[in-house]
Amino acid sequence: ENNFIGYLKIIDDKYFVKEIDSYLFFPIQISPWQIKPTEAELNEAVTFALDNLEKKEKITASLFIQKFIPEYYSAERAFKKQEPIHAEIYKITEYGIYLNLFGDKVQAKISPAADNLPENLKVGDKINVSISYFSKMKIVVKPVL
């Protein structure tokens, strides 16, 4: 069923869950937009699932209860509704155009060769984008007219 109980631990500034029966430690992937567990939550029982079961050396744990910053939920809502987002350019390199979405809490990157891009973009310009891929660890956007 992939439903386990364990204790939340922190070791060398990394989060782990120690499975209650086997005492095995599994690393927890923390999303860039996730609110990290507090000191009070350490050593408390949590429920979790295991990810990447097909590769034993890459197994990680996902907590069933996770809290995220409000901007993450705004991005999730925009993805589900496929709403355009007004993004501000904060950096331009030959590798990509870097954008702030929903203030400066959520960032994304688009290729400088992407379709539908206005010409002569500079830092501080705003463009409309839509989220084409959304997960807890990554948000991918594409420009829209």
Blueprint (SSEs and pairs):
Layout: E1 4-11, E2 14-19, E3 25-27, E4 45-51, E5 60-63, H1 70-81, E6 85-92, E7 97-101, E8 106-110, E9 126-134, E10 139-143
Antiparallel strand pairs: 1-2, 1-4, 2-3, 4-5, 6-7, 6-9, 7-8, 9-10
Within the largest sheet, what's the order of strands? Answer: 3-2-1-4-5
Q: Whole-number radius of gyration? A: 19 Å
Mean pLDDT: 92
Distance between the amino and carboxyl termini: 45 Å
Count of strand segments: 10
Task: List unreliable stretches of 5+ residues.
Answer: none
Quaternary organization: single chain
Largest sheet: 5 strands, antiparallel
Q: What is the percent of helical residues?
A: under 10%
**Shape field:** elongated
Tell me the series of helices and strands, N- to C-terminal. EEEEEHEEEEE
What count of helical segments does DSSP give? 1
Strand composition percent: 35-45%
Q: Could you say which structural class the secondary elements and strand pairing correspond to?
A: mainly beta
